[in-house]
From TrEMBL:
Similarity comment text for this entry: Belongs to the NARF family.
Organism listed in the record: Cottoperca gobio
Region (Disordered): 19-38
Protein's name according to its UniProt entry: Nuclear prelamin A recognition factor isoform X2
Highest taxon, organism lineage: Eukaryota
Residues passing through the membrane, by range: none
Length: 408
C-alpha cells in the first residue's frame, strides 16, 4: 500500500464522518434501523455509504479526480473509435475481465441464469469491438491462496509480533482507503498484503496474456466489469501503474450499471444478443463452465482461509461453516472449537456502521478475532455500491444466488 501524500489533498470537511458518528449513536438506540439497512429498505438519506464518504471532493486530490474521470464509458468508446481509424499504430487490443459479483445484476436484468448472463454479456462486449472477455474468478483463486499463506504465517508469529493479528482482508478498496486515510497505523499493519483479484487479473492480462499474444502491455487496453464504483479508486492507485511502459494493470473499471446503460443507449435488447462463451486467460481450450468460490456475498476469503487454517494449523477438516449473527446480519462470526477450547475465531463485518463498531473495539483492544473479512458495502459484495438496486429486489437476487449455488 502506498503512503498518502497529505499536502496534495484538498482540505477535508469531515462532515460525512460526523454524520456517520451521529447515526451510529442513533442506531444503537434504535435497532429497527439495523433491520432496515440489512433488508435494503432504507429511505434516501438514512444510510451513509463508505464509498460516498471517501470519494467525495473533500477526500480526493485534484490528480485523483482527473484519473477517476478517465474511468468512464467515454474513455472506452474513445479507444474503440481509434481502433476503427486507419492509423494502425494507435490501435489497441481490447480485453474485458468480468468480476463474478457483477453477473447477478445482468442475470436479473436479462431474466436468465448467471452462466447465460455471462455469455450474453460477452456477446454484447464483443459486438462493441472487445476482442477477449475473461472471467476473473481465476484471479480470485490466486488472491485467496496468497491470503491463506499469509494468515498461517501471521498466526505462527502472533506471540512475538503485535501487528500479526487480527488480519484484515484487503480486497475492498473502500475499506483500504478508509484505513489509510482515517485509521492509519491502528489498522494498516494488520491488512493482508495479498493483491486483490482485480489487480491480479490486471497482472495476468498485462503480463502473461500480452506475452502469449506477442503484444506490448501498453498495446492492450484492459477493461474490468465490476459491481462497485470503489474499484475505480483501486485501479488508479500509483502502485498499479507501470511508469516505464506508461500503462496500468487495469486501464478502466466500468460498473454493471454503466454497461447496462450503454446497452440501453444503443437500444440493444437481450433477445438479439448472441450467447458467446467467455475466453480463457491461460489459453485453455473448450467452453469451461464458470467456477465460483463459496462465500457470503464475497469471493469467499473468510471461508477459504478458515478451512485452510483449520487443516494447516490444527489438522482439522472443516466441511461446513456456521455463521453466528451478532449485532445484525452484516456482523457475524465463525469459530473453530476442539474439546471446549476456541482455536479460531473469524468475523465478517460489512457496512460502514459495523466497521465503525469494529474500529471502536480495536481502539479498546477488544477484538478477539484472528481474521476479519471487511467490506464497506452493507450486505457485502451481494449488494455493492454501483448496482441499480431500485431496479432489482433483494428477493430476486437471493433466489438467483441460491439457484446458482445449487447448480455449482
Amino acid at each position: 500500500m502506498s503512503e498518502v501524500d497529505i499536502p496534495k489533498r484538498k482540505e477535508k470537511c469531515e462532515n460525512c464522518t460526523k454524520k456517520c458518528n451521529k447515526k451510529q449513536s442513533d442506531d444503537d438506540a434504535n435497532s429497527h434501523q439495523d433491520r432496515e439497512e440489512v433488508n435494503g429498505q432504507v429511505h434516501e438519506g438514512s444510510q451513509l455509504l463508505l464509498s460516498a464518504c471517501l470519494s467525495c471532493d473533500g477526500c480526493l486530490s485534484e490528480e485523483e479526480s482527473l484519473k477517476i474521470s478517465q474511468q468512464s464509458l467515454e474513455e472506452v468508446e474513445r479507444v474503440l473509435a481509434l481502433n476503427k481509424k486507419c492509423d494502425v499504430s494507435k490501435h489497441k487490443v481490447l480485453v474485458a475481465s468480468v468480476c463474478p459479483q457483477s453477473l447477478p445484476f445482468f442475470a436479473v436484468k436479462f431474466g436468465v441464469d448467471i452462466t447465460e448472463a455471462a455469455h450474453k454479456l460477452c456477446g454484447f462486449l464483443k459486438s462493441l469491438g472487445v476482442q477477449y472477455v475473461f472471467d476473473s474468478t481465476l484471479a480470485a483463486g490466486f488472491s485467496i491462496l496468497e491470503s491463506q499463506k499469509e494468515f498461517v504465517q501471521r498466526f505462527r508469529r502472533r506471540h512475538h509480533d503485535s501487528n500479526a493479528l487480527p488480519m484484515f482482508t484487503s480486497s475492498c478498496p473502500g475499506w483500504i482507503r478508509y484505513s489509510e486515510r482515517v485509521l492509519g497505523s491502528l489498522v494498516t499493519p494488520h491488512i493482508c498484503t495479498a493483491r486483490s483479484p482485480q489487480q491480479i487479473m490486471g497482472c495476468l492480462v498485462k503480463d502473461y496474456f500480452s506475452t502469449q499474444q506477442k503484444l506490448r502491455p501498453e498495446k492492450v487496453y484492459h477493461v474490468l466489469v465490476a459491481p462497485c464504483f470503489d474499484k475505480k479508486l483501486e485501479a488508479v492507485r500509483e502502485e498499479f501503474y507501470n511508469s516505464l511502459l506508461e500503462t496500468r494493470d487495469v486501464d478502466c473499471v466500468l460498473t454493471s450499471g454503466e454497461i447496462y446503460y450503454l446497452m440501453e443507449q444503443r437500444k440493444v435488447s437481450v433477445e438479439e444478443l448472441d450467447s458467446v462463451p467467455l475466453d480463457h486467460v491461460l489459453g485453455e481450450a473448450g467452453d469451461v463452465a464458470l467456477l465460483r468460490h463459496e462465500g457470503r456475498g464475497s469471493e469467499g476469503f473468510l471461508e477459504h482461509v478458515f478451512k485452510h487454517a483449520a487443516k494447516e494449523l490444527f489438522g482439522l477438516d472443516v466441511h461446513e461453516i456456521t455463521y453466528k449473527t451478532l449485532r445484525n446480519r452484516d456482523f457475524q462470526e465463525v469459530t473453530l472449537e476442539r474439546d471446549g477450547e476456541t482455536l479460531l475465531q473469524f468475523a465478517a463485518v460489512y457496512g460502514f456502521r459495523n466497521i465503525q463498531t469494529l474500529v471502536h473495539r480495536m481502539r479498546k483492544g477488544r477484538v478477539p478475532y484472528q481474521l476479519v473479512e471487511v467490506l464497506s458495502c452493507p450486505g457485502g459484495n451481494a449488494r455493492p455500491h454501483g448496482f441499480k438496486w431500485t431496479l432489482i429486489s433483494q428477493l430476486q437476487l437471493e433466489i438467483l444466488l441460491l439457484t446458482s449455488a445449487g447448480g455449482a
